[in-house]
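Input set for joint prediction.
Command: fold jointly, output tokens.
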Amino acid sequence: MIKLEHVVKAYGEQEVLKDISFEIAKGELVVLIGPSGCGKSTLLRLINRMIELSGGRILIKDRDTRTLDPVSLRLGIGYVIQSIGLFSHMTIFENVEVVPSLLQQNKKLRRERARELLDMMGLEPAQYGQRYPKELSGGQQQRVGIARAIAADPEIMLMDEPFSAVDPITREQLQDHFLGLKTQIDKTIVFVTHDVDEAVKLGDRICILNQGLVQQIDSPKALLHKPANDFVASFLGEDRELKRLSRIPVTDVMRSGAHPEARTIEKHKSAKDALNRLLAGENSLNVIDDQNSIIGTVNLQDLQG
Amino acid sequence: MMTKRFDPVLLLGAGLGLVASLFPLLLFKANRLVLGDFIGFPDLPVPHAYLMLLAFLALLASAFLPKFRLPIASSLVVISWLLLNWTISLTTRQLLADAPAIARVSFAPGFWLALFALYVACFALSQRWRWAFLLLPVAVLLGSWLGHYELLGPAVEFRSVASEFLPQTLRHLALSLVSLVLAALIGLPLGILAFRQRQFENIILGGAGLLQTLPSIALFGLLLPPLAYLGRSFQLSQVLIILAILILFIGLRWVSSLRFLGNLAVSGTLILALPLFGLWLVSLLSGESATLKSWLNLNSSLADIGLRGIGAAPVLIALTLYALLPIVVNTHLGLRNIPPGTLDAATGMGMNARQRFWRAEFPLALPFMMEGLRTALVLTFGITTVAALVGAGGLGFFILRGVENAAPDLVLLGALPIVLLALVLDSFMRGLSWLLTPKGLRS
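tokens >
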């Protein structure tokens, strides 16, 4: 879907990005992460030509972005930023309908679509649609920001630290909501963050950038289990095995069978939740499904995979 | 919250009113040359003067009434004013009874202090009741309806120049409004340019600031010879032909290699057309039928349509230049004030430059632009007073004549309407700005 070939971006003498190449498949969510100044936001903004390339090329659906008109390129790409950037003079409905109105879609249809999207983002349209951005909390505003980005149903979404400006609890809610949404909307998403936990939680693959180069790009599990170099290892943190376990459902590590005296854990919990319980003094845990019947068992040895 | 036992501001207002009664309220002059006699409390007719004092005392006492303060104090403000007026009008009648027709009675410091005292009282009351600021205008209107001011100096002067008053007021309004329109047509684009092109930012903002420092009288003097020359030497037909040629050349903008020439033609057209438009609008608004007729005759010289060394032309130029600063600065500020994230989102979502301007930048900066226009209007309305110096008329005409004839009442006749109309225009612009501010931006 998106193909980066030897991408270079330089400001004067200084090369912010040196020779970046990778590919993003359709429907995939790739997280760009790295220390500040690593060029992750720059890379994101090169994709919709908010910034122009210094070298190499970027292909979207096999077409070189430099041959496309930047405005129509951006119309086909959802864009969410940390500062949200809602239009404070427009109602929530009008904000969500910006791109459809730029595309001159039918008024009635786009209002219907806006209702649907607000609903999908967990905002009651009848209650919020006619309000103005300043009347909403930061978390609610970012929900509108996401609804606005997908209003015209773009195939690609670029998200630049969308959840960084809100408090930790709201952030977690937004992430959970977004994960649910992701399965419904089937978009190719490039997501910039500086938060390793967020990257592990949301990413299908994570691309770690440092000093203008890709240090490693892989699935969260592989990345956490086998960091390619010292930088990646220290960037992901000493607790990377714990982070890895947080991405693995407990059903992936359980053995069949049941332990006669063990307490139970629900099947949608992560391996990290199980570890927590086991460390708290349980010898083993029985995994149960929604009907409370035991489907397997897990102990500390099972977690050392 | 503990309720205060008395209202200190109301107390101050009422106290000032009492002090004012000790000062002379009126000035009696048998003719324009004598210095005149001040008329104070001992000379006032007996029951009315004491009633007036009593009203101010009651107002003072009402400051200590927490419960019924608002209705009682509000009525006392109006009553005090009416008693003051009644006293003044009776005194004036007595003074003028056996004086020559040229004798004048005008306001003295005590009167102005009493007016200020009641203003302070109204201000105190408006903290509780937002319409309290209307009490004073209502009281003044009531006083004029009761005929309290008929014999006073400014009223007498008004009757002697009544036929000129309305035309000069219209003229004053026309000059300042037309320069506001011209300044807006030039200033809004300049403010936008200063925001978009960083290299012009300092030149434009600095230039607009520099224009403010030019003394208006000097400007009139400097403009006189070139304007007089232009007016005498060119005919309307010649200018219209040049204008038509320039407009044809605008077409070059769409030829990519000659774009610069096209833009030059646009600037030329504006430089030529804006002053002509301004002159025409002033004649139209101030109802100068002779000048308006000259527009229909192609053989008219530019002087015939108003481009002369004196008159409307230099005034329009000066006022337009002065009005530029608030308009340019506020436009620039309004655009600079838009959160960068909003504009980033606008571009990132796929707006082109024009869409971004009309859908985001313009509505978001509009409240600031309106603020600039409001400031500019109040500013030009005040400065238009000097228009009378170069024979362009306006309310400054009365002020100038008053100064020449040592007739302060005539000066007041020009000055009071300027102050009042400026306040009215100011509120009008505030209201308009509120209406035009998008709902989501109102605080």
